[in-house]
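From the thread on structure requests for the teaching lab: each student submitted one protein with a one-line request. Submission from student K.M.:

"Model TRAP transporter small permease protein from Aurantimonas aggregata, tokens only."
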Amino acid sequence: MSALMAFSRGIDRVTTFVGRGVSWLVLLVVLVSAGNAIIRKAFDISSNAWLELQWYLFGAIFMLAAAWTLLKNEHIRVDIVSNAVSKRTRDWIDLLGHIFMLLPFTILMLWLLYPYVLQSFMRGETSPNAGGLILWPAKSLLLAGFALLFLQAISELIKRVGVMFFGIEDTTPMGSAHAEVTEMVALAPDRPEGGAEPPVNPPPSNQPRDGGPGVIR
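Reply posted by the TA:
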């Protein structure tokens, strides 16, 4: 198991390196988008290449950061179910989900994308738009993204097996939504047994009590 865990940590390092590098593309997308808009409005100059570059950069961010998002446990979950079950049950959901859903899906996408990208590369495919960019690098991002996601799924599967059956410490980060709910529960005031809301002091009233005089205005 130690060898598998070392392999998992190696995948995690690669995923983290790629994810952090790709995160800087967000700034580049903003600069390209703002520059293109300024030049178009100020000088009435534009090109399809700038527009397609924005799409390519967005695709790179989305695809290449998917594995990093999985590593950070930030993919969308059905929190109404996840928060209602025990950690052991969530571990089983993750384990079975990786085996029967995520891994088969990534394998299928790799199998379909490889000839698709290869054919585009061999033909030197370019955009049909005037002044557009070549297409095969953008299509290659699909293949690279699913390859990284497949490797990270293997890493997550190894870690989940280690936690569930070999007593390895669970270092998986808590997703933001689940972490927020957990923090709210932890900071909530204590309630009496039975789950009833704690009594709230009624606001002061200007009505007479027990037959006493009212408030004189």
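TA comment: The chain is about 70% helix and 0% strand. Residues 2-171 form one domain.
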